[in-house]
Amino acid sequence: MTSTIKTTAAAAVISFLLSFFSHVQAQISPDIVKLLIVASEKDGGSSLDLVAELAIAADPAAIKDIQAYVAELKQNAVEKIAEPTPGYFSLQGWEGEVELNFLRSSGNTSQESLGLAGKLHRDAGQFHHTIDGFFDLNKNDGAKDKQRWGLGYKLDYDFSDKIYLTSFIGYENDQFGAFRERVTTSLGIGYPIIHNDSYSWKVEGGPSVLFTKDLPGEGFNTSFNAFASSIFDWTINERSDLGNVTIFYYGDKNVIESKTDLTVRINGSLSSKFSYDIKYDQDAPLDRNKTDTVARAGLQYDF
Known about the structure:
By secondary structure, the chain is of the alpha+beta class. It folds into 2 domains: 13-82; 94-302, Beta Barrel (Porin), CATH 2.40.160.40. 23% of the residues lie in helices and 53% in strands. It has a 12-stranded antiparallel β-barrel. Strand 10 and strand 11 form a beta hairpin. Helix 2 packs antiparallel against helix 3 and helix 3 (48-58) packs antiparallel against helix 4 (63-82). The protein is elongated and about 85 Å long.
């Protein structure tokens, strides 16, 4: 008897649920639900009430269900706005990548090479933050012939879809390059020339100031310059991307920096990365080469 009662009760509950969901589905069609969701997400939900009125006019029998669903969408929007914004130093909202390459050879010649690089990027409304850093070390037969590292921070602010303000500050330390230490600052205007699913090309320009220490023990020399930069990205296919950043500094010091990257995704967040850097400093000391190049091949992890 008890088993019969349980079976009858379960059947009644299932019948009620099926009846309830059938009623809701009948009252609000899937197409109207989609329209209401889109209206709640577009332009801060400014057109939600208008879309709701049109939906009610199209299906007056569903007025109560539509009104209840609209109220739920509005409540969800309020709760979403009330969520705390992640702090600047929180990793929430940041995207990044880490690159590692290592080479070791032995036999007739011995060589060890290590390269590390990383980048963090965050979009916060009209503000776009980019932090990057690198470290390169190379030894030949136990003798160090390359050691360089640097950090940089770039901040862009969108004035409109076509114009943005860009600023940069960076530090580089190079024991064997065209200079010993350099601090670079710049402030300018950026303009996106091309932006679609395959290509992105932006140009930037403005004034800059370089603080350069050519040799150990010397002080920093200040040079006032104008800078012009080109930032190009090409999505070759679903797995491959090619990018180039070239910067020209003209004035008291003439400097050219160019970096080209080819990234090929292996799976998930792991990619192989090939890069080639060119740095030219017209005013390098007499015992230093004016042009330095760095070629890298390694792995990149995106997070």
